[in-house]
Design goal:
This protein has 295 residues and is an alpha/beta fold. It is built from nine helices and 16 strands. Helix 2 runs parallel beside helix 9 and helix 5 packs parallel to helix 6.
């Protein structure tokens, strides 16, 4: 951890004009794509990195992965799911509105190499996170097989975009309303059972999904990289809120991650810590929906 903060490129946009929402689009009922004006972040950002943003003076700080960037236009793209008060507030914003604080790029970039044949797996809104990694891996010369999934067809995002950067794209839905009927982990298991060559797996999505994927690849010793979504506050490694256990050692997602070897992650501890403030988050969300919080 020593010197970790010094190694970060950390910029805080506090001038209102630099945090303008350029474009907003609803990808599904509760998933939103947003393009923000953030020129310095756009210049520095690499695949796998994220931002911390605060909507207003009283808002909470939330981490969101940078899905895409345009250095020339000075913009970054984020995708988020409405799961609490802050994301609900953001979902109501429109092009031209401003977000008070945006900090980044944070975290370590994905280690991009030509591994050979890679499988990139995204579940739910995690498809938005795996998208930039897939693009970078394809650009590096890898053969890329992508597996994306959602509960239903209506919740599926970025199918066209993922198809454009993949050598093969497989879609799965839990309810069978589109593509393979089942989970993305089952698609991967079938590939392994058929003896398909896989040099590396990247899996991003809900914690249970990443755990299952890691369990599937462990017997074959297929290196599996996951991106963790632990609770985060300052994103500098100082508060310790985002701590996770990896290979029996305490790591901090904000400065040591967000990506780790899935075979070494203590997923139970991660899931337990993510439940710590569920009641408070639910209460804040309900108060916001009924207008009881004054916003």
């Amino acid at each position: 951890m020593e010197g970790a903060v010094d190694s970060l490129f950390f910029y805080d946009y506090r001038r209102e004009t630099l945090n303008k929402i350029i474009e907003k689009k609803d990808l599904s009922e509760k998933v939103v794509r947003m393009v923000l004006e953030a020129p310095l972040i756009a210049q520095k950002r690499k695949a796998g990195q994220f931002i911390i943003l605060k909507v207003d003076e009283k808002g909470e700080r939330i981490p969101l992965t940078i899905v895409d960037s345009d250095a020339q236009a000075g913009t970054i793209t984020i995708i988020f799911q409405v799961v609490g008060k802050t994301t609900a507030v953001m979902a109501k914003m429109k092009a031209g509105d401003t977000i008070q604080d945006v900090q980044g790029p944070l975290g370590n970039p994905t280690e991009i190499k030509n591994y050979g044949r890679v499988v990139c797996i995204g579940g739910g809104v995690g498809v938005g996170v795996v998208y930039p990694l897939t693009a970078a891996l394809k650009k590096a010369g890898n053969e890329v097989i992508s597996i994306i999934g959602s509960r239903t067809k209506d919740l599926l995002i970025l199918e066209k975009e993922m198809g454009a950067i993949s050598d093969r794209l497989i879609v799965a839905t839990d309810d069978g309303s589109y593509g393979f009927h089942g989970f993305v982990s089952q698609v991967l298991q079938e590939m392994i059972d058929k003896g398909e060559k896989i040099d590396r797996v990247f899996a991003i999505g809900p914690v249970p999904m990443m755990k299952v994927i890691s369990d599937v690849t462990r017997p074959q010793g297929i290196k599996t990289i996951v991106s963790l979504n632990s609770i985060m506050v300052d994103a500098t490694g100082m508060c310790g809120a985002c701590r996770v256990s990896v290979a029996g050692k305490t790591k901090f997602t904000c400065v040591d991650g967000p990506e780790f070897d899935g075979h070494e992650v203590d997923f139970k501890l991660l899931a337990d810590r993510l439940k710590m403030y569920c009641d408070q988050e639910r209460q804040a969300y309900e108060q916001h929906k009924c207008g009881c919080d004054g916003n």
